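Morning!

This is the sequence you dropped in the shared folder:
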Amino acid sequence: MRLWIVHQDAGTPYEYGYSRHFELAKSLIAQGWEVKIIASAFNHKAKEFRVDISEEYAVSQNVDGVECVFLRSTSYQKNNWKRVVNFCSFPYYLNRYVSRFIKVQKENLPDFVLASSPSLFSARAALSAAKRMRCPFVFEIRDLHPDTIIHLGKYSELHPAIRFMRLMEKHLYKNAAGAVSNLPFANERIVELGYPRQGPFIYIPNGVAYDSQNLLQSQSGSTEIKKEFVFVYAGSHGISNDLDKIIDAFNHVKLENLEQKKTLSLRLVGDGPLKAELKQKVKKLNLEEFVLFEDSIQQDEVRPMLQKADALILAVPSSNLYKYGIGANKIYEYMASGRPVFCISSARNDPITDVGSGVTISAEVSIEGVAQQLIEFSEMGNEKLKEMGRLGVVAVSENYTYGALGKELGVFLQTVIKSDMK
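The structure's back. C-alpha cells below.
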C-alpha cells in the first residue's frame, strides 16, 4: 500500500521541528508500506530553509529510508501577513507537484492521502490531490483550528478569517474518508462540524522514537542529595504553553521567601513567539539567577538533555478548548526520560496521573498554590520521585512507541479503504 503524508511543517529527527509523521512513516515502511512525506522546504520552527529550492520547486531526499519531498514556499519570521502568504504558497506548489506526478508516474499513485492540521490550506490542497488521484482522503486533527485561534487568540467566531476557516474545516470533515487525532475526544468535535458520526476515527497519541528495550534501560533518576532542584521545560514558548504562570510561581517562591529545603531553579529550553517577552519578564522580576533560557535543540538531543533535570514541568491554560483532551508531544518525551513530571492542567485527559509518572494540579490553582506545590513536589524524596520516573518509562515502552503506534495506524487505514469501497 502507498501512503502520502502531507504536513507542511513535518520534519525529521535531525532538525528542530515535528518528527511525528517521520516516525510513523518508518513504522509503516517496516510493515511493508511505501510512504512519502510532503512538507515545506521552509522549516517553521527554525525559521530557515532546510533545502535549496532556488532551481527546483520540489526536492526529494531519502532520510533513513523515508522519502521526504520538500516543496518551495515563502519564508517568514513572525506570525504576520508573511505567514499567510506561506500558508498559500505551499498548496500552490503541492498542486504543481501532483500534476507532474500524475503525468510522469501514473502507475505509482498513492492508495491514501493523509493530511495533518493545523494548516487547513494545505489540507484542502491534499483533499484536492486525493480526488485527482482517486484515492481516499484521511484528515489528521492535531490542533482544532480555528477553535484554537478563537479560544487562545481571542478572535470572534464572526471574524471574516475565522468564518472562512470554519467553512474550509467543515468541507474537509465532510469529504474525509477517515479521521485521525492525537486528541482522545476530538471525534466529538468533528462530528459536530460535519464528520459522519459512524465515520472511521482513531486516536493515535504522540509518542517516542525509542524502542521498548532501550527505554527500559534508561536511567530513572539520581539518588544524589543536592541543594538545588532543577525543573526543565522543553518546547515552544507560545500562548498555549502558559509559561507566564510557571514563571510567576517561581517569582512567588522567591518573593515570599517560602521555606524550602532546596533552591528551586527553572530551565526553559526552546523557542517561540513569546520567548523575547518572557525573557523581559524574567529580567524585570530579577529572576535571572533562578530562571534560565536556552536555545532550541534537535529532536535527537532532547532525551539526553531532559535526563539532566531533577523534574520536568509543563502547563496547559485553563480553556474550554481542552475538553477534547491534550496531546502535546512533550508529555511522552518527558515520560521517556525517566524523570518525574509536574503538570498544571485541567484538560479532560491526564496522561501523567493515569500512569503515575508525576503530579498534575488544576490550572485553576492560584499562583501561590502552584508555588507551594512546586516546593512540596521537590521535597517528596528521591525514592518517590525516582519511582515516578520509572513508571513513566514503563508506560511509554508499553503504549507510546512510534513502532506500535504506526502498526495501529496501518490497521486503521486498511479499515478506511474497506469502508470507502462500500
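Headline: The two ends are 19 Å apart (CA to CA).

More detail when I'm at my desk.
O.
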